[in-house]
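In response to reviewer comment 3 from the previous cycle, which asked for concrete evidence that the modeling workflow produces usable outputs, we include below a single protein chain processed end to end. The sequence was submitted unchanged, and the resulting structure tokens are shown without manual editing.
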Amino acid sequence: MPDVTTELEAAAFRRLLKHLQARTDVQNIDLMIKGGFCRNCLADWYRDAAVERGLSMDRDAARELIYGQPFTEWKTRYQGDATAAQLADLAEAQKKHPPQG
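The workflow returned the following structure tokens.
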């Protein structure tokens, strides 16, 4: 059963990536406010998992995998400036979300 569990988890993760790549209207700050993580967190977690298994992966490669394109390109195309309200909401949300790691 562990192989099936891993396959299902991988399929769900791939679907999440496709969903986030299609929803470019959803800003990372909004994900952080509501969920306590964002696309960059996913990239960091992916890179951490690779490094734990002895694989070499830098931050840019991990982010490109998560974003489906280079991060700088995604940021230029889709990332807007955070509003004062978003920044205030993020500060409040960070008090509630456990630290990532």
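The chain has six helices and no strands. We consider this sufficient to address the reviewer's concern, and the full set will be provided in the supplementary archive.
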